[in-house]
Design a protein that fits this description.
By secondary structure, the chain is α+β, with helices and mostly antiparallel strands. The chain is built from four helices and five strands.
């Protein structure tokens, strides 16, 4: 389940974002968080399962409601369980516009969408 970012979650969000290679530098990480706090076009969501916040997903919104997937990270203890894919597909369903990737996320986003399409086709054939 997604939780919209607020300042109370700042340390958790920074910890999760720091797993992304381009966010390793503390100054860069602080700048990224500041963008999510101060700029309406930047929106950050935390993914919660049970009582644990285990993932983060950040979007940049264009005026036409297209959203660019800026950041996506899952706590390493929860990786390889399909959580990142679940986060992407859940967000894609909730958006009014298209979801596109940036240099760091385009490949994963494409894989999620492709896998989802294959699963839909398999379900239609077997159903």
């Amino acid at each position: 389940m997604f939780i919209k970012f607020k300042s109370a979650y700042k340390k958790i969000a920074m910890g999760l974002l720091s797993y992304m290679p381009e966010e390793k530098d503390v100054k860069k990480l602080q700048e990224t968080i500041r963008n999510y706090e101060e700029n309406e076009q930047w929106q950050l969501y935390l993914w919660k399962e049970a009582d644990d916040i285990i993932g983060v997903l950040g979007l940049y919104f264009y005026e036409d409601n297209t959203a660019r997937l800026q950041h996506l990270c899952v706590n390493p203890s929860y990786r390889d369980e399909g959580i990142g894919r679940k986060m992407v597909l859940t967000m894609k369903e909730r958006l009014d516009g298209d979801l596109i990737g940036c240099d760091e996320t385009i490949e994963f986003l494409g894989a999620c969408i492709e896998d989802n399409e294959k699963n839909k086709q398999t379900d239609e054939v077997s159903g």
